[in-house]
Structures are given as structure tokens and as C-alpha cells.
Design goal:
alpha+beta, about 375 residues, about 30% strand, about 30% helix, 21 strands, 9-stranded antiparallel beta sheet
């Protein structure tokens, strides 16, 4: 079992205080957006044996187990994070596996550099992800039914939004959502900026269901993504609740602290709320234009006190143990690789004492026993 020393990424949207508060450290004064736990080449966790990427590369079957290597290859197939948002992240979607492979191969054929700002596909993998709230957590997830989106837009009383309202009323669901999103993202930018300014003022005046979009416009004035966001469901998670984001589902995280886990990929197609590249044709190829309930997940009880966040993906499985004072030890030994993350209290994992924000990597088959009083998240795979 290896104690992990993890990198914190200073993205501009990150909170300056949430991760330091969790870790019990002094703020640095700069945003601290994400703490990465895993073997991602961009910021692999460090261990006493070298980086976790180096440890796994040296003997994949020993560290990951034969079954995991046979199914996912000689790499850790997930990345675990603590995410702390103080401002909205970009509105985005992720491709499915076939789309990722096709898009990556196409950009490789065309010689688009991996670090080019217009590059969409950094790898040939999909990127399902799960966010579990540690504090109250706001986000956008999936399309509203067109009628509800039309009502939200119509209530603003902005004349330039009327064509979108009419389309949402008149067209079948798939066509309505596709045509309105396309129109928003391809409209003249100066005209759109004026519309966003009018819509933002109306959202601030109306409050209630409109309030989140006034905040989006505050952070991204004039951005078409503000209007696109009004087509989506607004979700407020309570601590312990989670969202699963599958392929083609537009989403954005707005604020809060959470544990995030995802397949090990960097493939993101942006819709707005960002100064970065927006590839509208490719985005429209990937987005699933169907209204959906956000599907808030609550953990399901499993044996030995484990609470599991059930998802349809095999690259990761997230669960938690809430250990009471004076409780018995729990044996978490598995034939798959694990990362154990403490988020509250004081727990013992093997020989390691873990406080909030501290984590360990457990190689496949290694003895993994936890005890103490606190909350432990467990990340592994399904084989």
C-alpha cells in the first residue's frame, strides 16, 4: 500500500480556500481547483517507489492484476480527483468510445498537433465521469424538455429570444434542441452578446430558477454558452449525492466541493462558458439531443457497510465507507487496483494514518484494511 502525494491544479475557476480547508493547510493565494489521484501522465501521484505511473509501468500485472490488464490494458483506467469550483467550468460534452477513436484517428491523419488549441481529441478513449458532492454542489446536466426551456426563455421578455422560443414549441424534441443550440452557437457574436446582456439583466431581476444564469453571465459576459445553459437542467446536490455524466450529455459544474472520478481521458468538446476553442460541427456530432432527468444518484448499501454509486461504466467504481467511532475494521482487499481517499475524520488504512484529503494506492490483491472514525471513498474498477 502506497501513500500518495498528489498534485493540485491551479485552474482559474478553482476555489482559493476549499481544498486547503479540507487538507488543513494554509491557502496559497492562488486558485486550487483539482487534486489529482492516479497515474495520469499530466500529473501522476507520487509514491515512495516513484510516480504511480512509473510504479505501474514497471510491473502492470502485479500492480493492477491480470484481469484488469486484460480488460483495460497496462494502465490505471481511472483518475480520481477532489474538485473545488468557485466559478463555472466550461459547458461541455464527452464522446463515446467509437466517436473518440474516430475523432482521434482523424486528427492524427490530418497532423493536428496534440497541443494545438483547436485539437478536440487528445486520446482515443471515452470519458464517462461521476461527481459526488462533499458540500452543496451546483451544476447543469442534460437537456430540459423543450417546453420547459421555452418557458424559461419566454419569461425573460427578450425579443431576440423569441425565435428560439418558437422553435422549441414547434419542432419535435430532437430537432428543437438541435436547431436552437446550433442557432445559439452560430449566431453573430455581437448580436449574441447584446442578447446575453439583456437576458442576464432579466435573470437577475426575476431570480428563482433564473438566478444561476445571471451568475453565469457575470462570469462570462456575452458568452453564447449562457443561452445554451438555459436549455439544460440546473441541479443542486446535497453532500453524498452524485451525478453520472455519460457520453453526449451536455453539462457544467458551477460551484462546490466534490469527489470526481472519470475514465482516464482528456477528450472534451466545449459548448461555451470558455475562451477556448468551440468546434461547433464536431460538437453537434457528439451531443445527444434528448431531454433527460439529471438522475441524482444516492449510494446503495452493499455488504460490510460499503455504499456504492452504481454506474454503467467498468473503468471505475466509486463507493464509500462511513466509519463510526468505535466501529470494527473493514477488509477491502480486492483483486483489482484501488485508491482509498479519506474525506472526513481520522482513519487507518493498513499502516497509514489518513486525515481529510489524504489517500493511498492499493495494488491488486494487497491486504487493505481500514479502521477508525471517518469517511473513506474507494475507487477501483469492474472486471
Amino acid at each position: 500500500m502506497d501513500r500518495l502525494d498528489n498534485t493540485v491544479r491551479p485552474y482559474a475557476w478553482g476555489s482559493r480556500t476549499a481544498i486547503p480547508r479540507l487538507l488543513g493547510t494554509e491557502p496559497t493565494g492562488e486558485p486550487q481547483a483539482e487534486m489529482w489521484m492516479g497515474a495520469h501522465p499530466g500529473a501522476p501521484s507520487r509514491t515512495a517507489r516513484g510516480t504511480l505511473a512509473e510504479v505501474i509501468d514497471a510491473d502492470p500485472e502485479r500492480e493492477l492484476g491480470k484481469e484488469a490488464v486484460a480488460k483495460f490494458g497496462p494502465r490505471l483506467p481511472f483518475l480520481l480527483k477532489i474538485l473545488a469550483a468557485d466559478a463555472p467550468l466550461s459547458l461541455q460534452v464527452h464522446p463515446d468510445l467509437a466517436q473518440a477513436r474516430e475523432g482521434y484517428a482523424d486528427e492524427e491523419r490530418r497532423g493536428v498537433p496534440l497541443d494545438a488549441p483547436e485539437r478536440n481529441y487528445k486520446d482515443a478513449n471515452h470519458k464517462p465521469e461521476l461527481i459526488c458532492a462533499l458540500t452543496e454542489f451546483d451544476g447543469l446536466c442534460g437537456f430540459r424538455p423543450p417546453q420547459r426551456a421555452a418557458d424559461l426563455l419566454a419569461a425573460l421578455g427578450v425579443d431576440s429570444l423569441k425565435p428560439y422560443v418558437d422553435l422549441l414549441h414547434a419542432r419535435p424534441e430532437d430537432a428543437a434542441l438541435r436547431e436552437v443550440l446550433t442557432a445559439i452557437l452560430t449566431a453573430d457574436r455581437e448580436e449574441t452578446a447584446r442578447t446575453v446582456a439583456e437576458a442576464a439583466a432579466a435573470c437577475a431581476r426575476l431570480g428563482g430558477d433564473h438566478a444561476p444564469y445571471a451568475q453565469l453571465a457575470h462570469h462570462y459576459p456575452g458568452d453564447p454558452g449562457v443561452l445554451a445553459a438555459m436549455l439544460l437542467n440546473h441541479v443542486r446536490l446535497q453532500p453524498g449525492e452524485a451525478l453520472f455524466l455519460g457520453a453526449g450529455v451536455p453539462h457544467a459544474y458551477l460551484s462546490g466541493l466534490g469527489v470526481e472520478i472519470m475514465a482516464n481521458s482528456d477528450n472534451v468538446l466545449r459548448c461555451g462558458l470558455t475562451p477556448k476553442h468551440v468546434d461547433v460541427p464536431e460538437l453537434l456530432r457528439v451531443v445527444r439531443f434528448e431531454a433527460s432527468d439529471p438522475g441524482v444518484l444516492r449510494p446503495e448499501a452493499a455488504p460490510d457497510g460499503e455504499e456504492v454509486y452504481e454506474t454503467p461504466t467498468d473503468e471505475f467504481r466509486l463507493s464509500r465507507h462511513v466509519l463510526p467511532e468505535g466501529g470494527t475494521a473493514h477488509d477491502l482487499t480486492r483483486d483489482t487496483p484501488q485508491i482509498l481517499l479519506c474525506t472526513a475524520g481520522a482513519v487507518r488504512a493498513g499502516e497509514h494514518e489518513l486525515g481529510p484529503g489524504r489517500s493511498v494506492f492499493v495494488p491488486a490483491g494487497e491486504k487493505a484494511e481500514i479502521s477508525g472514525a471517518g469517511t473513506v471513498f474507494r475507487a477501483t474498477v469492474v472486471v
